[in-house]
Amino acid sequence: MIPLETHLQIGSLLFDGLDQIDLTGPFEVLSRIPNATYRVYAMTTDPVRDVKGLRLTPDATLADAPQLDVLHVPGGFGQEAMMENQDVLAWIARQAGGARNVFSVCTGALLLGAAGLLRGRRATTHWASFHLLPLFGAVAVNDRVVVDGNWIFAAGVTAGIDGALRLAAELRGDDAARAIQLYMQYAPEPPFDSGTPERAPGAILDQARRAVADITAQREATARRVAARLGIASVDA
Which residues are catalytic? Predict the structure, then answer.
């Protein structure tokens, strides 16, 4: 836990085509951490749209970001376009190198991998891309939230809320995280037990896999290309 008198700079990466819950779910938690400044950074200050069209506006550009204490990297379909953007990857690597904590949600983990930061780390990501983590040298762990030292990885989409609460506890203590959870009234009681591949009915899982087959194949091709550029030994995914 970091002393309360220590002010924290918390920042999230924003890009076109991200999944807004990867950003806004953690935002609900991270923006309420005591004695902290939370801002959203993107390549430009122009608004972007999430994968379903929601309009989002960054606070500042990547170039204007201070050294962050907490770096939050979301995912979504738009992550694919960032995988070989050297300016974005360099920013991620630079910020991660000086941050107290790094937090990824969903396929944000693949961006950390593309920045060369996953070698030897225990990590997780969305179930459709989970098999790609070893391509970046990561140890894939099939849990909703995975903690590796000061790095926290959340699996798909809504898992970002769970990961952010874990991060809040790391930063300001369990009671601060509990207070944020209470304010949010975060006590999920989903009407169906179908939130993981292991629990979803087979027909639903097959349908979901078909729906993301194209982006999954594209992500694998990109992941293999990036891994080769990074000099990571080939792994059968």
Answer: 106
